[in-house]
Amino acid sequence: MLDDVKNQFSDKAAKAIAAYQEELKKVRTGRASTAVFDKVMVDYYGTPTPINQVAQISVPEARLITISPWEKNMLAPIEKAILKAELGFNPNNDGSIIRITIAPLTQETRVELAKSAKQIAEQAKVAIRNLRRDANEQLKKLLKDHEIAEDQEKKGLDDVQKLTDKFIDEITKIFEKKEKEILEF
Known about the structure:
- There is one protein chain.
- By secondary structure, the chain is an alpha+beta fold.
- It is about 55% helix and about 15% strand.
- The strands form two sheets. A four-stranded antiparallel sheet has the order 3-4-6-5, with helices on one face. A two-stranded antiparallel ribbon has the order 1-2.
- Helix 1 (about 1-25) packs antiparallel against helix 3.
- The chain is elongated.
- The mean pLDDT is about 90.
């Protein structure tokens, strides 16, 4: 039972960290990245379809993204989807390919993006702490229901705290890497 609580906590925390990493992908850095288009959906013959399933997205230069649709008639829907996603990009359609130039970020913008990334990191840490609270409540309930002994509860609480510290440290490292990416020129 003790292991079940710890495993559930670890699974949920891993999912929270994965969600955090997905959220961080949305935070722009000064470099071109295809990851910003992961959630962009294109109207493909009436069906919302991820952009990477109707076109090839590549980064030929540090500040340029090119989108080559598999079908020429998809240029306009792709362009429309990018504008609708409000990513801050202005797609340039030349009739066969869409080019997106990534404007260099000002220092002020970089600082704002770093603050935004820090807020996302704090939200992820809060999510981990909430999961810890839930796991601790489960352990206390198991003790109250006489399913585990007091020493098992104490060991479980300690283990959950160690896991919490590990996950929060992981979030901090991910944030520091992203912050460095954002603030570098």
